[in-house]
Structures are given as structure tokens and as C-alpha cells.
Amino acid sequence: MGALIGDAAGGIFEFMGRPPTLREAQAALNLPGGGVFDLAPGQFTDDGEMTMALLGAIDKGKGAYRQELAAHAYCEWEQSNPFDIGLATRAALSVPKAAMSNSKSLAKLVCSQALEHNSASKANGCMMRATPLGIAATGCNIEETIEMVTSDVVLTHPNKDCIDSTVAYVLALRHLILHDGDDVGAIKTANSYLSSNNHSVLGWLDQAMEGKIDPVTKQIGFVKHGFTLAFHFLAYQYSYEEAIVQTLLKSGDTDTNACIVGGMIGAKIGAHNISKRSVQILLNNSNKSRPLQLQASMLTKYLSYFYDFNLEIKKYAAVVT
Predict the structure, then answer these.
(1) Domain count of the fold of the chain
(2) How many angstroms separate the CA atoms of 263 and 95, rounded?
(3) In CATH, what number is assigned to the domain containing residue 9?
(4) Which of 109, 125, 158, 198 is most buried (CB neighbours < 10 A)?
């Protein structure tokens, strides 16, 4: 929920050419739509659609992640003519329609294309969709979580920094959900993983802790930006609304950075502590130009295997109806 609202808020300012004003950033929390994509109120962009595609794949796996189901869901999304898609993501997921009939061979094809085209890419397309992995990880141990996240990231972004930053992000999400918003423990979990696996990305985490945030308007799609912002706002006790507004004010890849930040802070506070107005607008959106399985209205179904989280969604279903 936090990630989807962040994406819908940030999508308004995508490619705007200037940073939003404070008033514009605050108003974006009401998800008014518009912008270069002419979004409907509450509509999210490719970040949210890939998140929903992954949730749908986990639903088909009866609450478990399976790489072949995720690959099929992502390729199906790529073939739905999305109005926005990253270059690295398209390079990995663009396959002949005939390849869609065999999910296992499809996953191998997608991985090989990602390896061929995106080995050097450190783009953020892998992290922007990762919040469902944090939810699924609540039923996994640490080692299983690492394996699951790696399996998903290599479908599009096999670079080691992409893999390890997304693993650290998901481990933090998992900890926040399992331990009732324990931000200190979440950061320690991410730090422990990175200390053993990737000193470069550990440096990103250190920067986040020290408040040394790079300008996000340089290398706009760099996965480091969303990662450092998310951990910085988590460590410095920002509210959900403050974190999203501050992310938007920095400009850059507003929808993706706000999606990543929103996922982190949303996991800390729980869906029931996010603005009911924002949630209602998100759930009420039904843009008929996009497939039903990518709509926020599918959240309750997709989260049915995660009982506690689903209870929070059901509270909002009552608000909507």
C-alpha cells in the first residue's frame, strides 16, 4: 500500500522538468492524477503495475514466490503496452508471444536476456517492484529470503549491486513487518547482510545513516537513490507523509523513489496508519485502459495468503464501500 501510494503521488511529477513546489508535493498525497502520463486519480505507473504483477504471481503460487510465475507475469505486463517502462526492464522482458506458453523456459530466456543486456545496469527497476517480496518473506527464513529476492532481481537486473541492495531492502521490509515497525532492527539486518556481501552497497547504507544523500537528479534511475532515501527516512524517524513529500521535492525519478520510500515507511507503520483518504482514492481507481489484474482493487485477493496484512486491507475495504 505504501509503495503504490508513493508511486501514484510521484507519477504526477515524472518528466515535469522542474522540482515540484512544497504545495504541489503536499497536494500529491491526495493522488489527483494528471502529469505527462495523464494519470487518473489514484492511478500508479509502471512501478505499481509491476508490483501488482508480482503480487498476482505470488497469489498464483498460493503465497509462495516462484520465478517462472513472476517471469510470466512480468512478460505479460510488458506485452500489455504499458505507458511507461524502463529500458533495462524492456530489454529483459521483451519476448516473442510464442515463448509465453512455457513458463520455465520463459524464465530462462528472460534471465539470459537480462544477463546479456543489463549486467552493467544499476537501474532501479528491480527495487521498485520488490515490496511483495517483503510480504512473502514473512513466511521465509533469512536464507530463503535472500534466495527468493535474488531469483526475482536476476530476471531483469543481474548486476551485483542491484541484487544486494534489493536483498537488503527486502530484508528490512521483512523485519519491519515481523517486528512491528522495529526500524533499528531492520537497519541492523540490512547492515549485517551487506557487511558480509557487498561493501559498495554498505557504503550507500552508511551514507543514508549519515544524511549524505546524493543529488537524485544525476543518474536519475540509479538504484542507489531510492535505497538511500528509504533507509535515511527510516533511520531519521520521518512520518510516511513527510518522507513522500521530501522525496518528491528532490525531483529526479519521483515515482520510483517515492515507491521505494513508501514501501519502506509503509512497512514500518502498517497500512492502517496511512491516510485513509489516500488509500480510498487508490482503491477506487479503475482505469479501464489497463488490465484488471494490475488494478489496486485486486489487493485484497492477492494478499489473502497473508492474513494479518489482509486484515489491514479489509479495514479499508469497509471505508471504500
Answers:
(1) 1
(2) 29
(3) 1.10.4080.10
(4) 125
